[in-house]
Specification:
With 290 residues, the protein is an alpha/beta fold. The protein is built from 9 helices and 13 strands. Helix 4 links the parallel strand 8 and strand 9. Bound molecules: alpha-D-ribofuranose (RIB).
C-alpha cells in the first residue's frame, strides 16, 4: 500500500534563543540552523524513514528545487509536487532551551495548489491507500472528499489547529489526530467529544503524558504512555508521530504497536534540534534505549 500526503513544504529557519521573545522585545539568537520542514514534508520524511512508500502532493516556488531534491533523496515520491510562481513556504522558528517553540509561518506556494493536479495525483492511488493532510495547504476538503470517493483511508492531522478547517474535512475522515487542547476546542465547536464526532480512529496526543486512541465505533480507549526524555527541541515531534503511526498502520501493524513505534520516534525527535532532516529511521527507533 502507499501513503499520499497532500502536504506543506517549507524552509525552516530555526533560531536557538535564550527564551521565547515577548511582544516588543528584541532578542539575539544563539545560533541559526536551516532545515527542510513543513508539517507535510516532515510527515512524508517520517513515513518514508519508517518504511512506507510515500507520494508527496504539494507545491514549491521557483526557489524550491532544493526542497524537492531533498524529499526525493529521503525516498519520497515527488512527481506530484508543482513548481509555481509564488515563493516556497518558510517558517521562522524560535526554540528555547527547554525545547518549546514559537513559529511564524509564511504559507507561500503551499496555499496555491491546483485542483487538476490534485485530481491527477489521487486518481493514481489504489483503494485502501492512506491519504493524509494537515492544515497548511489549500484544497484540504476537496482532497478529503475525493479520497473518500476513491476508497482511500482519509486521515487529517489538525495542525495548525482551526476548528473550521477540521469541520470542513470531518465528514470524509477515517482518522483524526489532534492534541488535548485542540480536542477541547473541537468539542466546543461541534458539541461532540472525540469519540462522538463520527470518525473511526481518533488519536489525541497528550504531550509528556503520551497519546490516547479512541475507537469511534466501539468507544474503546487505548492509552500509550510517553517515554522519559530530556527535550531540546519539540519542533516536528508531532509530525514525526503522525508519519510513523500512519506508516505502521500502512505496513499492517495493529494500533497499539503503531502508536508505540510512533511514540518512540517522537521521543527520539525531541532530543534532536531540527525538523525533517533529523527524523530518525526505523532502525534507530527500534533500537533506541530510553
Ligand atoms: O510542525 C513543525 C513544522 O511546522 C515546521 O517544520 C514548520 O515548517 C511548520 O510547518
Amino acid at each position: 500500500m502507499a501513503i499520499w500526503n497532500l502536504g506543506s513544504i517549507n524552509a525552516d529557519m530555526v533560531y536557538a534563543m535564550p527564551h521565547l521573545p515577548a511582544a516588543g522585545e528584541t532578542l539575539a539568537a544563539l545560533r541559526l540552523d536551516r532545515f527542510l520542514g513543513g508539517k507535510g514534508a516532515n510527515m512524508s520524511v517520517a513515513a518514508t524513514r519508517a518504511g512506507s512508500k510515500v507520494h508527496h502532493i504539494g507545491a514549491v516556488g521557483p526557489d524550491g528545487a532544493w526542497a524537492v531534491a531533498r524529499l526525493q533523496a529521503y525516498g519520497a515520491g515527488t512527481g506530484h509536487i508543482a513548481q509555481v510562481e509564488t515563493p516556497t513556504g518558510h517558517a521562522i522558528i524560535a526554540v528555547e532551551p527547554g525545547g518549546e517553540n514559537q513559529i511564524i509561518l509564511f504559507p507561500g506556494a503551499n496555499r496555491v495548489l491546483d485542483r487538476d493536479r490534485l485530481d491527477q495525483a489521487l486518481t493514481q492511488a489504489d483503494a485502501g491507500d492512506i491519504l493524509v493532510m494537515q492544515n497548511e495547504t489549500s484544497l484540504q476538503a476537496e482532497a478529503a472528499q475525493l479520497g473518500r470517493q476513491l476508497g482511500l483511508r482519509v486521515c487529517y492531522a489538525a495542525a495548525p489547529f482551526d476548528a473550521e478547517a477540521v469541520q470542513a474535512v470531518l465528514p470524509y475522515l477515517d482518522f483524526l489526530i489532534l492534541n488535548e487542547v485542540e480536542a477541547q476546542q473541537l468539542q466546543q465547536a461541534t458539541g461532540d467529544t472525540p469519540g462522538e464526532i463520527g470518525v473511526k480512529d481518533v488519536i489525541v496526543t497528550l504531550g509528556a503524558k503520551g497519546a490516547r486512541h479512541i475507537d469511534g465505533e466501539t468507544g474503546a480507549v487505548l492509552e500509550i504512555p510517553a517515554l522519559p526524555v530530556a527535550a531540546v527541541d519539540t519542533t516536528g515531534a508531532g509530525d514525526t508521530f503522525t508519519g510513523y503511526v500512519l506508516s505502521a498502520l500502512d505496513r499492517g501493524l495493529p494500533m497499539a504497536e503503531a502508536m508505540t513505534q510512533a511514540s518512540r520516534a517522537a521521543a527520539l525527535m525531541v532530543t534532536r534540534r531540527g525538523t525533517a532532516d533529523v527524523i530518525p529511521d526505523l532502525q534507530e527507533v527500534q533500537t533506541a534505549r530510553f
